[in-house]
Design a protein that fits this description.
Helix 9 runs parallel beside helix 12. The protein folds into two domains: 141 residues, Leucine Aminopeptidase, subunit E, domain 1 (3-Layer(aba) Sandwich); 325 residues, Aminopeptidase (3-Layer(aba) Sandwich), CATH 3.40.630. By secondary structure, it is of the alpha/beta class. It is elongated. The protein is built from 13 helices and 20 strands. The strands form four sheets. Strands 7, 8, 9, 10, 11, 14, 15, 16 and 18 form a nine-stranded mixed beta sheet that branches. It has a six-stranded mixed beta sheet with strand order 1-6-5-2-4-3, with helices on both faces. The longest helix is centred in the N-terminal third of the chain and has 22 residues. Bound molecules: ligand BES and zinc ion (ZN) (2 copies). The site of ligand BES has 16 residues, from helix 10.
């Protein structure tokens, strides 16, 4: 979807227009006739968020009423959701070009509506013969948004599209080597991101016992990808390390997933897609933050010489792990990546992972389960920006006492406590064992992928979390102040 800034002439429309009508005080310059205005006002009175359609044959003006008296972040989220409804109507009517104008609207509100529209206008249809009719060109009334702000937003929104494409792609077309190639090509295209791809041999020589074990049942090699964006004007002296779970497909391994628990597990690399995309978005928009991403990539399958329950692994940092369930694979590959990142002395480690079904059961599908160790300040910033962009965190306790549940008779740790209490927290505690720097753990299992359409996040890969991380990097300087 292209967006350009132009003047809209309501007397000579050359496409349909969405008119955002907020509740700020006059003066007004509404492009409506008297009787139209009376009709719009009566609809607003009945429902402050109503959509009113005015005919301007052969075009239409869709008047989107909205209530900006609400607490601001809620008003903005409501606008994103309104935009998703509008997108469905435009799709049904076969509209590909529209204008967006407005009155009583501030730039943040226009940006939120556009954001919702852009995200709702995404489909994964490359394998479908019949494609949806989506928006291709949007003209935004000139004074509403600055050109620079619009372009920054567009780059971010296109990153969300790309992220969603990666997560939606089936493993038969996107295995670990293929994803590593894509990340490398993307880094080369940007020019200011360095990409190192470690292959099977290198991973073996590093003795990444977790990544190697999970990969053993696979026909495809594993990869370990490291990205670095290190701008000259960086505000941090040591890097922020982003770690993402890159299980290209999770069958469960020998503890194979039953019935319909397997479907959608192509999304088990959403953490790696989100973390790499957030680094790329920062690089594209030249944010002054030094970032590194650590992405362990493999699928998890039975077969070949697949790792088994009762195996005892030696991890990259020397910790030994008794396997109790091969379906708790994410924490094994992440542990090696976290330990690797940890040795580079980062000032903060953040991971994102579709880690536990327990997170979905406990919290549902609209929040991220979030935990932290020694990272009060960045965690509270992340929590605040999460509220602002409405990609919110649900902080869970992360006490050391939970480590009791990870004790093994024969090794340093078990990979999963079989009596499954506090599954989301113990998975996080397992990872925290490998981090000796301020650490934030984000379990995105509930939000990364939707089985049915979830407003502007759509159906399938949602891209949830990218706006959160981007906003966090934008505000990162706040963690430096006393
Ligand atoms: N990838 C899954 C977690 C998952 C489940 C993500 C549902 C998204 C939706 C993870 O590897 C897994 O299988 N976890 C197990 C852990 C269990 C064996 C302790 C789970 O949550 O059932
Ligand atoms: Zn699993
Ligand atoms: Zn998994």
């Amino acid at each position: 979807m292209n967006v350009t800034l132009e003047k809209i002439d309501y007397n000579k429309l050359n496409c349909s227009v969405v008119f955002l009508y907020g509740s700020e005080v006059a003066p007004r310059s509404l492009p409506f006739k008297k009787e139209e205005l009376a009709y719009v006002e009566s609809c607003r009175k009945r429902d402050a968020g109503s959509l009113v359609v005015l005919n301007r044959l052969p075009y239409k003006i869709y008047v989107q009423n909205f209530d900006s008296e609400l607490p601001n972040v809620e008003a903005l989220e409501r606008l994103r959701k309104c935009a998703a409804e509008v997108q469905l109507i435009l799709e049904k009517e076969g509209v590909t070009n529209i204008g967006i104008g407005g009155d009583g609207i501030i730039p943040e509100e226009a940006a939120a509506f556009l954001e919702g529209l852009h995200m709702a206008n995404y489909r994964f249809e490359k394998y479908r013969s019949k494609k949806s009719t989506l928006l291709t060109d949007v003209v935004l009334e000139k004074h509403i948004l600055e050109q620079g702000a619009l372009e920054e937003n567009l780059r971010l929104w296109r990153r969300i599209d790309t992220l969603r494409d990666w997560v939606n792609e089936p493993v038969m077309y996107l295995n670990a080597p293929a994803f590593a190639d894509i990340l490398q090509a993307e880094a080369e295209k940007l020019g200011n991101v360095k990409c190192t791809v470690m292959g099977q041999k290198k991973i073996e020589s590093l003795k990444m016992g977790g990544l190697l074990a999970v990969n053993r049942g696979s026909e495809d090699e594993a990869r370990f990808v490291v990205l670095e964006y290190k701008p000259a004007n960086r505000i941090n002296e040591r890097p922020v390390a982003l770690v993402g779970k890159g299980v290209m497909y999770d069958t469960g391994g020998l503890n194979i997933k039953p019935e319909d628990y397997m479907v959608e597990m192509k999304s088990d690399m959403a953490g790696a897609a989100t973390m790499s995309s957030s680094l790329f978005a920062a690089a594209e928009n030249a944010l002054p933050v030094w970032l590194m991403a650590f992405l362990p990539l493999t699928d998890n399958r039975p077969g070949k010489n697949a790792y088994a329950a009762d195996d005892i692994l030696k991890m990259y940092d020397g910790t030994t792990v008794e396997i109790t369930n091969t379906d708790a694979e994410g924490r094994l590959i992440l542990a090696d990546a976290i330990a690797y990142a940890d040795r580079l002395d980062p000032e903060l480690i953040i991971d994102a992972a579709t880690l536990t079904g327990a997170a979905v059961r406990a919290l549902g599908t609209s929040v991220i389960a979030a935990m932290q160790q020694d990272a009060d300040k960045p965690f509270s910033l992340l929590n605040i920006v999460g509220g602002q962009v409405y990609e919110r965190l649900a902080p869970l306790p992360f006490w050391k006492e939970y480590d009791e549940l990870l004790k093994s008779e024969v090794a340093d740790l078990i990979n999963c406590n079989l009596h499954a209490n506090a599954g989301t927290i113990t998975a996080g505690r397992f990872l925290a064992h490998f981090a000796h720097h301020p650490y934030i753990h984000l379990d995105i299992a509930g939000v990364a992928f939707y089985s049915k359409r979830e407003s502007f996040y759509g159906c399938g890969a949602s891209g949830f979390g990218l706006r959160l991380l981007y906003a966090f990097f934008q505000m990162y300087e706040a963690t430096k102040k006393k």
